[in-house]
Specification:
Elements (H helix, E strand, L loop, with lengths): L6 H10 L4 H14 L1 E5 L4 E7 H7 L5 H11 L5 E4 L4 E7 L2 H4 L1 H7 L5 E3 L4 E5 L13 E4 L10 H17 L4
Antiparallel strand pairs: 1-6, 2-4, 2-5, 3-4, 3-7
Helix pairs in contact: 3-7
Length: 173
């Protein structure tokens, strides 16, 4: 394999390794035509689904670009996909997280947080979809910095704990 100079191309190439070789061309075509493709989780990476209300509870803004910046800082540039239609964030984490963080994941379910792994698929935008747009179903809230660079599970857990604390200590309206 030859080195790929462009980090976005390298990240897309790495993401496609979750698919068998014959399916990679289909995924590339879907990225080209629809800007998103479905990739299986639990092989190279998993995803923690974080409801937008948790992010809004912590951020000082509801502006998409400012929420993206908040996620970038909170997760130390770890890759995050945003689904603006349903206001959900997907932090990409190591494939082992659904197993190794099982108790925490169970504790997060009342917050509508879930850790998606083997048997799940995620709509992954192409690497250049890096801003919220009405034309996009999903975009990179925090783009992948390089191949296999994922969010650290402890950072994700701290973000969820901070949001839980914020929601439980808010004064009632």
């Amino acid at each position: 394999m030859h080195p790929i100079a462009d980090p976005r191309s390298a990240a897309e190439h790495w993401l496609l390794t979750t698919l068998p070789a014959p399916s990679r061309d289909r995924a590339r075509l879907e990225w080209q035509q629809h800007a998103v493709t479905m990739l299986p989780l639990g092989i190279s990476f998993s995803a923690v689904r974080i409801p937008g209300r948790l992010v809004l509870a912590l951020a000082d803004s509801a502006e998409p670009s400012e929420l993206d910046e908040f996620m970038r800082q909170a997760l130390d540039d770890g890759p995050v996909i945003c689904d603006p239609r349903h206001l959900r964030y997907y932090a990409l984490v190591p494939a082992s997280m659904p197993r190794t963080w099982r108790q925490a994941v169970d504790d997060w379910r009342p917050l509508d947080v879930d850790c998606l792994g083997l048997g799940s698929y995620l709509g992954v935008p192409r690497a250049d979809a890096v801003a919220c747009s009405r034309a996009r179903a999903t975009y990179w809230s925090v783009p992948m910095a390089s191949s296999a660079a994922l969010c650290r599970p402890l950072k994700v857990a701290r973000l969820i704990a901070a949001a839980r604390h914020c929601l439980t200590t808010e004064p009632e309206a």
